[in-house]
Amino acid sequence: MSAQFDVMPLTPAGERLLDAAAELFYRRGIRAVGVDLIADAAGTTKKTLYDRFGSKDALVALYLRRRAQRWHAFVRGYVERVPPGPQQALAVFDALAERLADQDRGCAFVNAHAEIGGTGHPGEPVIRAEKAAMRALFTELVGGDADLGAQLHLLYEGANVAVTAGGQPDGVEQARRAAARLLDG
Amino acid sequence: MSAQFDVMPLTPAGERLLDAAAELFYRRGIRAVGVDLIADAAGTTKKTLYDRFGSKDALVALYLRRRAQRWHAFVRGYVERVPPGPQQALAVFDALAERLADQDRGCAFVNAHAEIGGTGHPGEPVIRAEKAAMRALFTELVGGDADLGAQLHLLYEGANVAVTAGGQPDGVEQARRAAARLLDG
DNA sequence: AGGTAACCATACCGGTCGGTATACTCGCAG
DNA sequence: CTGCGAGTATACCGACCGGTATGGTTACCT
What we know:
The structure is a homodimer. Chain A has 9 helices and no strands. Chain A folds into 2 domains: 9-54, Arc Repressor Mutant, subunit A (Orthogonal Bundle), CATH 1.10.10.60; 60-184, Tetracycline Repressor, domain 2. The longest helix of chain A has 25 residues, at 56-80. By secondary structure, chain A is an all-alpha fold. Chain A has helices spanning 12-28, 35-41, 46-53, 56-80, 87-102, 108-116, 124-141, 146-164, 171-184. The structure holds a DNA duplex.
């Protein structure tokens, strides 16, 4: 289901708030960003933020859902430009390479899990669902082989970590080559 | 060099503070834990904390260094119980599996990077060094093949993410099997 | 005309944040 | 006996935290 991360339509000020929150949460982290700062950056007020979203936690969950939806749409676009076959799985690594070029804080879901994991936060199920969806995508692209799909997914997550936390610039390329070898075997 | 993460000897209260901080930082996250809580948990005072460590940031950096030192010693111990050969690289995954059984918040360095990455925090170089050391270990264990070592390292990092943020219990086993396939080829 | 949803401005709440100040006790080495 | 490093206890600082309260202005719908 591609609608699993859909976000309800928002009022104009709500849209600005979610945009500002998304940028700040990703760049600086969730706990590091206060609601006052979000309201200021969106050119509106805390009152409007709480009228629209109810709580910071709910805003965080919405940020994660919209981010998952957009990232998966981006990846699907990349994959669909490649003719069906095992090359489609490798295209996911090309999408990751392009994304990491500007989004140098890595995977928003891994980062969010580091901050809210194990707390009962409403964003937690969104994080798990995003990982499950990426694994399902890989499995689908290799024709339903769940083991191979899961293993390609590990390379994808590992590349994300190696490039960002590890400061290893060729992580994605390395992952792509390992993936090609697993697809050959 | 195995001494690169060594932590200077500490006074008794300093030791208790670092122990308490390590537990709290790992379980709840760095920003989520205040210095008052750390002092209380260690049965001492904020005064002593600042006398010993100077700042919360310095305490965080020390926590990361000691964690890296202990984790690498743990992995080395696992590896040395296996006769030299490619099986040693697979033993790292066994070490990871055992560690993730109780330490269910995943990689402390990835988590820390999510909170302090890109801020100029004194813990940042420790994080990068830990990732470089794990990659170097894999490379060493496969006889110096830097590409293969880097690719095994990606599977290791990916397994960490898949099990924790992804909630995928068989992530390490899957990574180990993919690693075995890369070692065979 | 009246209702209502959206928005803006501002002030406030109790609590916690990282960090500092003051003043005291203890054990040990010169 | 004296000085000092280590530790305890407590109070304080300005800033910020998530969240609420009050009150007012638009624009659209019936």
